[in-house]
Amino acid sequence: MSYSQNLIDYYYPVARLQDLDAATVAGKPLAAVLLGKPLVIYKIRGEVVVADDRCPHRGEMLSAGAVSEAGLQCPYHGLQFAHLGACARIPAHPQVQNLRRFDLHSYQTVESNGLLWTSLGAGTFYDLGPERETESQRLVVAPPVNVNASAGRQVEGFMDISHLPFVHRTTFNECTTEIMPAYKVESVEGGFSFEYTSSLGNYPLGHSSPKDFMWRRACRIHFHFIAILDIYFPDGLFTIFNCASPVSEEQCVWFYPIRFDKSLSLGSDEEVNAFSEKVQRDDLAVVERQRPRYVDLTSDSEQSFGADAASVAYRKMLRTLGLCKV
Ligand code: FES
Ligand SMILES: [Fe+2]
Question: Residue-wise pLDDT tens for the chain (326 aa)?
Fold first, then answer.
């Protein structure tokens, strides 16, 4: 089976909800590429439509079109697409009744954690949490990052524990301990989990943890490209939803929503995002230098050590799902 066929029956994020809202106000659709398929995303009277980004008339790119109360309009001859991508009007022939052959192929969607998710196949959504903020927790979603590496490489890097004192030493405070604790990996529905405790801090450089504070981190991996990391701060819970959306075998889009207790004083959304972006820049440099640009499950050319237990479990899970390059 090809890369796309193997991954088609799952949900992946394709946009931030806040970007879709802003684009709709500006009268624009959004564009995305998922598993090699160009998609157009628009809203019509509150309903989200994700559809093929290609006009059935003469192949114009619909993401170059305009959005209004009536839906999405193709910029070439003005065909109008409404709910579920149904063609609603041909301006050159307003009397034509049967427009079904001009309908767009659209896909199912879910909103969760500030992101819009879609499946190109028969995916069932694994519930990851509420759409937006809750009473007790803030939700801050950094802008998505285009990555010149596979989704597998990105997610594997996120669950890696021994890179912290090398890659993030000048980003996190108290990030110098190089010796890693032993930890166990356990199976959970749709993936696996692991947790460890360490003195490696999670505050920005210059902000110390309370004396002798030990940081507990618990990570869950769901299906291929969702890694959820709970970090227990001194004053509450902080959760990163690291999701990589596969564009191709060697490219992905990296989504990074963070949900955290309102008891944490981490500053404004802009400040939280600025720090996330610094952490992401550290990781991006490494993941884009790794070769090959995907996790090669057919080869044993990459050796592992004890702290890689999560990555070894990840590769085993991916092999079980029938994948060879991820
Ligand atoms: S190409 Fe879209 S209306 Fe003609
Ligand atoms: Fe990292």
Answer: 788 899 999 999 999 999 999 999 999 999 999 999 999 999 999 999 999 999 999 999 999 999 999 999 999 999 999 999 999 999 999 999 899 999 999 999 999 999 999 999 998 888 888 888 899 999 999 999 999 999 999 999 999 999 999 999 999 999 999 999 999 999 998 899 999 999 999 999 999 999 999 999 999 999 899 999 999 999 999 999 999 999 999 999 999 999 999 999 999 999 999 999 999 999 999 999 999 999 999 998 999 999 999 999 999 999 998 899 99
Q: Is the CB of 132 under 6 A from ligand 1?
A: no
Q: Which CATH class is domain 13-119?
A: mainly beta
137-169 residues labelled b (16+ CB within 10 A) or e (exposed): bbbbbbebbebebbbbbbbbbbbbbeebbebbe
58 close to ligand 1 (CB < 6 Angstrom): yes
Contact between 117 and 125 (Cβ < 8 Å): yes
Name the segment(s) of the chain with CATH classification 3.90.380.10.
137-320
> CB neighbours (10 Å) of residue 1?
10
Domain 137-320 matching CATH 3.90.380.10: the answer reads: yes
The residues of the chain that CATH labels 2.102.10.10 are 13-119
Measuring from atom 4 of ligand 1, which residue has the nearest CA?
77
Q: How far is the CA of 75 from the centre of ligand 1 (A)?
A: 7
pTM of the complete model: 0.97
